[in-house]
Amino acid sequence: MEMNKKDIIRLLEQIAVLLELKGENSFKIAAYSRAAQNIERDSRALSEIDDFTKIKGIGKGTSSVIMQYIHDGKSEALEELKKQVPAGLIPLLQVPGLGGKKLSRLYQELNVTDAESLREALVSKEVEALPGFGKKSAEKLLASLQEMGKRPERLPIAVVLPIVEKLNQHLETIPEIRAFSIAGSVRRMRETVKDIDFIIATEQPDIVGNKLLDIENVKEVIAKGQTKVSVILAEQYDINVDFRMVKENEFATTLHHFTGSSEHNVHMRQLAKSHDEKISEYGVENVASQEILQFTDEEQFYAHFNLRYIPPELREDSGEIEAFAERKIAEGLLHLSHIKGDLHMHTTWSDGAQSLEEMAEAARRKGYEYIAITDHSKFLRVANGLDETRLRKQKEEINRLNERYADLHIFSGVEMDILPDGSLDFSDKFLREMDFVIAAIHSSFSQSQEQIMTRLKNAMNNPYVSLIAHPTGRLIGKRDGYAIDMEELIATAAETNTALEINANPNRLDLSAAWAKKAQEKGVVLSIDTDAHNYSMLEDMKYGVATARKGWISKNTVMNTWTAEKIKSFCNHKRMIEK
DNA sequence: GCCGTTTTCGGCCCGACTGTTTTCAGTCG
């Protein structure tokens, strides 16, 4: 069996979960998950790693487990654990209130092996008779067992962002709030999130706490105290929202703490510890003097540790703490204010809601220097795709607008379909008339990887195609996208001078942060575009930028931070060399 | 299980909360 890194990572993670269920020493468990993490983070392919013990966090033990797995195609350590721990216990780790230790005891003493046998043991009151458990915990467990499976464990960020927006507006109206901020994985711009966290600075937690309960769609109040209000909102799905209330001088450290990731926090705390300091959500304590330092904002907090401000998107403990000790990386990182235009949007000519002129006016109001109008091509009938005649007509209108605007340049573009047979929707002869050609797949998603790659490579090898839109076709939490060999796509993009898109629509975020990072490493140019079908979708740019930042993308990599002139020469360059 | 100018043992991030306990273990973020 051909083994890859993902297999190794899965092996180590499986071992960690099974050890947890055995109630093993938590540091041993952590050692396996850390090993998995560090392998994932290592940019080398499996075949390029000759000595695993050279990777941090991997010693003799883990290394020999890995080597045996690679050599034999199976792992004795894993098989042994699987014999000791029933597979049905694994999903039960997700039940709130159940960790490895308790589950392990339920298995050993009551022979609980899956959700059904747990339910039986709860109903028959065997669980509450067990020392360390009790009536109350049994009731809670039964309740959360019923809730399980009613909704996906993590929600796509696109589902959550509008709710966060609504909460932001509600918090704005409470005068007793001195400052507030979203925290948690939403602030870090993870693709999926479990709950919503807000940090609130206030001197009047009682009043604020009451006003928080006025939020629309509160279905249940889980907790309401001096420091924390926790509610469940009944939105499209039920979602848990935690509000943490602290004093103003604790706000920065609390925000940092609850923004996470927990791996980032652990690393920061290790750093502090090496200076004889202790980080908690309330401040940084000097262990010797017991003096507690507080900060007016996160910038100061990081500065205390001689670090540049690390943006939330990067806080995943993937090397950011070392990197932001340097000025260079912090300053090269992309920022929303660097974006000069949007190179992918639709109008009423195809399936957009606003006219060409309306979209142009909206872009001017945003202060953009340029946009590309990229309506669908003729193949996409359902979207009223444009043929050659209509595109030429549209170009006339664009020319008229370009004459009128001194402050905005409009590229006459098209989002051209890559057809199922691998051909393109327009001839080279016609494409030459267009300023900016995007190619994209909108059909036959279920083709083999070979067919999909042939289509994409045909498009990238075309001298007039400057950009591949939403390269994987995924919809987060809804659709995986087509079968694609990303390494090959990135290599071809680099070879052919074709840019790849980070589609900013929060349902897509395609390329993902991780792939965008790989693409940048290989020298591929990126474009961050909203694919807007109406005014308000132009505002999605911030999510695209956040995704790029999560992938450590620097300003220079992104073509829509360039001048219009530079974009023109990028497109022309490809046309020249490939003629 | 990993790690080490306090190196072969004894740590490993910190604090709150909960329920079960007479002083704490387990879970969570």
From TrEMBL:
Q: Which GO terms describe its molecular function?
A: exonuclease activity
Domain Polymerase/histidinol phosphatase N-terminal, which positions? 341-420
Tell me the ranges covered by the Helix-hairpin-helix DNA-binding motif class domain, including all copies: 50-69, 90-109, 125-144
Keyword Nuclease present in the record's keywords: the answer is: yes
Kindly give the CDD domains that the UniProt entry links to this protein.
Answer: NT_POLXc (cd00141), PHP_PolX (cd07436)
Q: Specify the protein name.
A: DNA-directed DNA polymerase
All copies of the DNA-directed DNA polymerase X domain together span 2-316
Biological source species: Tigheibacillus halophilus
Q: Which InterPro entries would you find in this protein's record? A: DNA-dir_DNA_pol_X (IPR002054), DNA_pol_lamdba_lyase_dom_sf (IPR027421), DNA_Pol_thumb_sf (IPR037160), HHH_MUS81 (IPR010996), Hlx-hairpin-Hlx_DNA-bd_motif (IPR003583), NT_sf (IPR043519), PHP_dom (IPR004013), PHP_phosphatase (IPR050243)
**Keywords, comma-separated and alphabetical:** DNA replication, DNA synthesis, DNA-directed DNA polymerase, Exonuclease, Hydrolase, Nuclease, Nucleotidyltransferase, Transferase
Top-rank taxon of the source lineage equals Bacteria
Please give the SUPFAM superfamilies that the UniProt record associates with this protein.
Answer: DNA polymerase beta, N-terminal domain-like (SSF47802), Nucleotidyltransferase (SSF81301), PHP domain-like (SSF89550), Sec63 N-terminal domain-like (SSF158702)
- Name the Enzyme Commission number(s) assigned to this protein: 2.7.7.7
Looking at its record, which EC class is this enzyme?
transferase
What are the names of the required cofactors?
Mg(2+)
Q: Which reaction does it catalyse?
A: DNA(n) + a 2'-deoxyribonucleoside 5'-triphosphate = DNA(n+1) + diphosphate
